[in-house]
Design goal:
The protein is an alpha/beta fold. It contains eight helices and six strands; from the N terminus they run H-H-E-H-H-E-H-H-E-H-E-E-H-E. A four-stranded parallel sheet has the order 1-6-5-2, sandwiched between helices. Strands 3-4 form a two-stranded antiparallel sheet. Helix 7 packs parallel to helix 8. The longest helix has 13 residues. It is globular. Bound molecules: zinc ion (2 copies). The site of one zinc ion has 7 residues, from helix 2.
Length: about 220
């Protein structure tokens, strides 16, 4: 409903007409190969592990993202999160389908919302993204994880963040053997790694991560 009442302006350039204009949609910085086979970071040549994921114990088999997290993507994700511009989900889904090959997996799931935040408003971008992608990939959407309330991540160092998120996820149902885990933004990878680890504990043998955006430092 809210969508209909708001004036339709591009969340990136401000031009009237739609929530994301065609020019800005075209310009979103797609991630193209070569990239790290494991974590999906763009690299100069194909590698099996990269500077980001080398030496890290990763619970997911692979991670792939559609776009680099730049200023335009930041505006898009913020509008999607805070102003609940649900039509942006359709744009995000279309870019994921364009860039990320359909992953192998029996089912799709998403990083569950913080009980203190997302659930209160019933709006959780990763769930919306996962639901639509599951539909496109013709896979069932399952919810084997729940999230405990956690300390805020803001202002913490990378190591502190990892430790902070490690015990945040718990299982509420048995997980299928192979799963695609969907989230909106891959930042350090700590969140999807912790969720993947919880999915493995819940019975999954393989988890492949797909996110809309990826922070590339
Ligand atoms: Zn625009
Ligand atoms: Zn890597």
């Amino acid at each position: 409903m809210l969508d209909l009442l708001l004036p339709q302006r591009c969340v990136v350039c401000g031009r009237g007409g739609s929530q994301l204009c065609d020019a800005c949609l075209d310009r979103l910085p797609r991630i193209v190969r070569p990239q790290c086979e494991r974590c999906g970071l763009p690299t100069a040549w194909p590698v099996r592990r990269c500077r980001e994921c080398m030496g890290r114990r990763l619970a997911f088999a692979s991670a792939r993202s559609a776009v680099r997290y730049d200023d335009a993507v930041r505006s898009l994700v913020a509008a999607w999160k805070e102003r609940e511009l649900r039509r942006l989900v359709a744009a995000a889904v279309s870019v994921v389908l364009e860039v990320v090959p359909p992953p192998h997996g029996e089912a799709v799931t998403f990083v569950p919302p913080d009980p203190d935040r997302g659930l209160r408003r019933g709006h959780h971008p990763p769930r919306e993204l996962a639901k639509r992608l599951a539909n496109e990939w013709e896979l069932p959407l399952v919810v084997p994880l729940r999230r405990r309330a956690a300390r805020r991540q803001r202002g913490l160092s990378r190591t502190e963040r990892r430790r902070n998120v490690a015990c945040v996820f718990a299982s509420r149902a048995e997980a299928p053997r192979s799963l695609v885990l969907v989230d909106d933004v891959f930042t350090s990878g700590a969140t999807v790694n912790a969720a993947s680890s919880a999915l493995r504990k819940a019975g999954a043998k393989r988890v492949d991560v797909v996110t809309f955006a990826r922070v590339v430092r």
